[in-house]
Amino acid sequence: MELKITNVGKISLAEIEIKGLTIIAGPNATGKSTVSRSLFAMFHSFSKISDKITLEKRYAIQKLFFSSNKYWDFMLNVQINLRELASILAGDVDKNRVIKILHNSNPTFESPELVEELSDDIIKINSTSEELLRREIVAEIFIDEFNSHITNIRSNSKSEIELKIKDFKNKATFDNKNELIAIEVEKDLSYEVVYIDDPFIINSYNFSQKRLRLPPYGDVGEKVSNHRSSLISQYKHTENLTLVDKANLKEKLSVIYKKINDTLGADMALFENGKNSIDSHLSSDRLSVDSLSSGMKTFYLIKSLIDNGSIVQNGTLILDEPEVHLHPDWQVSLAEIIVLLQKEMGLHILINTHSPYFLRAIEVYSQKYEIDSCVKYYLSCNEEDVSKMKDVTLDISKIYKVLSKPLQRIEDEAYND
């Protein structure tokens, strides 16, 4: 997998290879998160696009139901949940069938003219060009992920993000005003990326608060347009692994789960699932996830996303400064777990870090578990106010030299005193 970024944020040009485990290390404000956001936006824009298009049509029909005074009398006595009705109607352009569905949902309604008018509005929604909707979906995801600031404010050049996987590539191009001007789609992606930068989303309070901010369209098929809302949705995802999947995962990851439990000094199975904790505070023989320390939440979140099928075999995982909140000893343990996950699940993992402990642990464990041939190292830095990503896989000492500067600064201060 290769990610090419041109004129996005502070990055003028970056070409990142993710063939197993890719580490980007360097100081703050050097473009590391821009790479992560670009990778997420590309995956989220071009994965399961048909589902996203259907979802948008469903939202439009629901808005028609809930906000149109014209159809109020019809909606008042509908004998089916309006969200469910919108799901049934989404994508249907057969007028006779749409009218029949509407009639069956409210058989006592006595205005066939109004029903016919409503069916016309629904068909108009469902007839919207899929190509136009695809462009709008891609534009919304990028704008939301980058907070409306995709292009470099110091440049008038267009911005391009290109993702190449095997023999196909997808690309999104924006003008200098952050407007999407072109997309190139050679293949739709079959799965979403998982982007973890905030383990605190498992807190029951934060989770329930975030949930209320999602569109009021029900729990199934929620609309997400940035990595934070995506992570929340993935975390509360209802487990859908088959028993075969569970058995294979349990056997394959038993060593990893044991290392997590040994590191934390507690069995993760003792803690209640965060999804249950938002529903009520009923008594339980399990411990609340709120009682986990900030460091423990990182381990718990990763395990939960594997258990519920969000992190999948050969999938893509983004970890933005996963060492934050962790003692150096736990940073080392987390690095070993990540290396083992890559080895056992064939994951494509992109990691941003500025911890020398974590970096060194990745280096050592990737050699110990013999995956060092599929590990790439990049140094992020600023040169003349432009961020650059330098491939230093053959000379990782360049990263350590940069990361050791704060310690040298302290020693210089001590010596001067």
Gist of the model:
With 417 residues, the chain is of the alpha/beta class. The chain has helices spanning 32-46, 49-67, 72-76, 82-89, 95-105, 112-126, 130-145, 204-213, 227-235, 243-252, 254-264, 274-277, 294-307, 328-345, 356-368, 397-403, 405-416, and strands spanning 2-8, 11-17, 21-25, 159-165, 168-174, 180-185, 194-196, 316-320, 348-353, 375-383, 386-391. Helices cover 47% and strands 16% of the residues.
Detailed description of the structure:
The protein is of the alpha/beta class and 417 residues long. 47% of the residues lie in helices and 16% in strands. The protein has helices spanning 32-46, 49-67, 72-76, 82-89, 95-105, 112-126, 130-145, 204-213, 227-235, 243-252, 254-264, 274-277, 294-307, 328-345, 356-368, 397-403, 405-416, and strands at 2-8, 11-17, 21-25, 159-165, 168-174, 180-185, 194-196, 316-320, 348-353, 375-383, 386-391. Helix 2 crosses helix 4 (82-89), helix 2 (49-67) crosses helix 7 (130-145) and helix 14 runs parallel beside helix 15.
Topology:
Layout: E1 2-8, E2 11-17, E3 21-25, H1 32-46, H2 49-67, H3 72-76, H4 82-89, H5 95-105, H6 112-126, H7 130-145, E4 159-165, E5 168-174, E6 180-185, E7 194-196, H8 204-213, H9 227-235, H10 243-252, H11 254-264, H12 274-277, H13 294-307, E8 316-320, H14 328-345, E9 348-353, H15 356-368, E10 375-383, E11 386-391, H16 397-403, H17 405-416
Parallel strand pairs: 3-9, 3-10, 7-8, 8-9
Antiparallel strand pairs: 1-2, 1-4, 4-5, 5-6, 10-11
